[in-house]
């Protein structure tokens, strides 16, 4: 199989667009988190496969570049500040943000150290990811419009990722409902 850095960039762009859309929905839940905690957890779990796709596609590009694959080397690395400062912060804060979110959902925790870490990692993630998106927006839009060989396969991967996200989100919905029940009971909104 011939290396396809353009196709990889397009797959990364598809994942990026999905992340922007669903992260906007996730961000909207923050406007009334007490009432929308179930939706917040559901969308967060739905995002997991998309985040893994984005990390995987960018990791693949990085690995191919640093292993000296001619096609990837020819395309060059991302700009130095993005590569050595922004990207590591985005990856680390993403792992902490989603890791603490999964932990909170698994143990039904609504306050404490893990909640604080989840909130703090969100702030760091938001700043670093905003810089990353703004820096990559033009290149991302070009990759989305292009017609590279293997487009059908990439679209299939994206579709499978969305299905996986739905399966994960639906599978964790009982835990999300339990969290919501805990929050509403704490503020006296439980009417049972």
Strand content: under 5%
Mean pLDDT, to the nearest integer, reads 91
The tally of beta strands, per DSSP, is 0
Structural class: mainly alpha
- Count of all domains: 1
Radius of gyration: 18 Å
The gross shape turns out to be: elongated
> Helix amount, in percent?
over 70%
* Succession of helices and strands: HHHHHHH
Largest sheet: none
- Count of DSSP-assigned helices: 7
Spans where pLDDT lies below 50 across 5 or more residues:
none
Distance between the termini: 60 Å
Structure in words:
With 192 residues, the chain is mainly alpha-helical. The protein has one domain. It has 7 helices and no strands. Helix 1 (5-29) runs antiparallel to helix 2 (33-66), helix 1 (5-29) runs parallel beside helix 6 and helix 4 packs across helix 5. The longest helix is centred in the first third of the chain and has 34 residues, at 33-66. The protein is elongated. The N and C termini lie far apart (60 Å).
Condensed summary:
With 192 residues, this protein is an all-alpha fold.
Helices and strands in order:
Blueprint: H1 5-29, H2 33-66, H3 70-75, H4 80-107, H5 113-145, H6 151-171, H7 173-186
Sum up the structure in keywords.
7 helices; mainly alpha; 0% strand
């Amino acid at each position: 199989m011939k290396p396809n850095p353009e196709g990889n960039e397009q797959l990364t762009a598809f994942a990026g667009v999905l992340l922007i859309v669903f992260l906007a929905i996730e961000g909207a839940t923050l406007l009334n988190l007490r009432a929308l905690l179930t939706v917040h957890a559901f969308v967060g779990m739905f995002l997991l496969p998309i985040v893994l796709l984005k990390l995987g596609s960018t990791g693949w590009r990085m690995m191919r570049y640093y292993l000296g694959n001619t096609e990837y080397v020819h395309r060059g690395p991302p700009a130095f500040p993005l590569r050595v400062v922004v990207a590591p912060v985005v990856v680390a804060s993403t792992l902490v943000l989603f890791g603490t979110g999964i932990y909170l959902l698994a143990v039904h925790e609504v306050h404490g150290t893990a909640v604080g870490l989840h909130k703090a990692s969100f702030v760091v993630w938001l700043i670093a990811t905003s810089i990353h998106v703004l820096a990559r927006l033009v290149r991302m839009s070009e990759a989305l419009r292009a017609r590279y060989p293997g487009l059908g396969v990439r679209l299939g991967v994206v579709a499978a990722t969305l299905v996986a996200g739905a399966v994960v989100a639906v599978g964790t919905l009982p835990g999300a409902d339990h969290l919501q029940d805990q929050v509403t009971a704490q503020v006296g909104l439980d009417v049972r």
